[in-house]
Amino acid sequence: MSDTLKRQWTILQLIPSYPRSISIKEIINKLENSLDVPNYRTIQRDIDTLSQVFPLENTRKEKAFYWSIKLEDGVLEIPKMGSPTALAFYLAEKNLQGQLPPVALDNLRAHFKTANKLLANQHSGYLEWAEKIRVLPQTQQLIPPQPNADVLDTIYTALLDNKRFEGKYFGRRDDQYKTYLVNPIALVLRGTVTYLVCTLRAYTDVRVLSLHRFIEAKIQDVGRWVPDGFLLDNYIKEGHFDFLIGDEIDLELKIDEEVAIHLRESKLTENQKITAQADGTSLFTARIKDTGQLRWWLLGFADQIEVLKPIALRNEFAKKTQAMANKYTL
Cα separations (Å) of 171 from 133, 143, 217? Predict the structure, then answer.
């Protein structure tokens, strides 16, 4: 491949789909990481050449021309998207709408359109796949909270651009909105809720806030920072998204056979042990974090599980089940 063709092909890849756009100055900045940077006039001539083959458009704003590629039928891809890839994009469109950042969805919409067009083609071999696959939630399906789209976009942009933002937030137990200077560290998606891992104001302790509880957000010209030694995976493993209550506990349960089958197939922990008993039940033992999530999971099995140890957890469940029984007394 000649240097000129390689440069023009790279430039074409940098030009976004309409309505997003890019200036020649921005193209030059991006080329600094991949090629010997040509001058402004060379880039302009390359774009003029590309415009003769591809549907490139430009608009003038802020004393500069901004370029975009306008495709009515989806996205230009070389090599052309194959049917398996189209199926993957179809599934992503159906199941990730509430989990991807708005900017990511905007970048993918042309791919979604291309995928849907390909799958609708009777010669693709995947014509009926849309009716053959469904993705269902593992637990009771809930209607996700609807965050303000502009606020959501601001927070995602702040995190992407390594900036802090000023946000107005309504906590679960607050009676009014509070304004914070927020230092965004990471996003964690769990079920129908997206959480922001962050620090607030000048404090260094890490907090977790629900994204949909922000009603206002404005990016500040203050750099984002990450606490020394903070690793997101470690933070998750420590149980902060399972509503951590205490240290690890030695859990001992008496479980019905149906529960035993379930836990042999889908383990609660790698260190668990299940021992069959003479009465048809099984003894389950494991070392596990003490969390609210564990309690909700145990309660979901109702009378199929009996908590034996630790005694404090058994007593807690005895009180809860007694309170439930009192509510259902005829």
Answer: 39, 20, 15
- Contact (CB, 8 A) for 158 and 187: no
Q: Report how far apart, in Å, the C-alpha atoms of 329 and of each of 192, 305, 325 are.
A: 34, 22, 6
**Each residue's pLDDT tens digit, 176-217:** 888 999 999 998 888 778 889 999 998 989 999 988 899 999
Q: What are phi and psi of 252, to 5 degrees?
A: -130, 125
**Cβ within 8 Å of residue 209, ≥6 positions away:** 169, 182, 195, 196, 198
Which structure tokens are listed for 91?
């599934």
Q: In what order do the strands lie in the sheet with 56-61?
A: 22-23, 64-69, 56-61
- Contact partners, residue 41, CB within 8 Å, separation at least 6: none
Is pLDDT of 88 > 90?
no
Statement: the pTM of the whole predicted model exceeds 0.70: no
- Residue 245 in 3-state DSSP? strand
CA distance 64 to 32: 20
pLDDT of residue 107: 67
Quote the CA–CA distance of 281 and 305 in Å, as a whole number: 10
DSSP letters, 91-138, are: HHHHHSTTTS-HHHHHHHHHHHHHHHHHHTSTTSS-TTGGGT-----S
Residue 240 DSSP class: T
Phi, then psi, of 186 in degrees rounded to 5 = -165, 165
Q: How far apart are CA 85 and CA 201, in angstroms?
A: 44
Q: Residue 89 CB: number of other CB atoms within 10 A?
A: 20
pLDDT in tens, 12-59: 778 877 777 888 888 888 777 655 667 778 888 888 888 887 778 888
Q: Kindly write down the DSSP assignment for every residue of 187-217, as one continuous string.
A: EEEETTEEEEEEEETT--S-EEEEGGGEEEE
Mean pLDDT of the chain: 82
Question: Both tokens of residue 245?
Answer: 């209550």
Residue 147: how many CB atoms within 10 A of its CB? Answer: 19
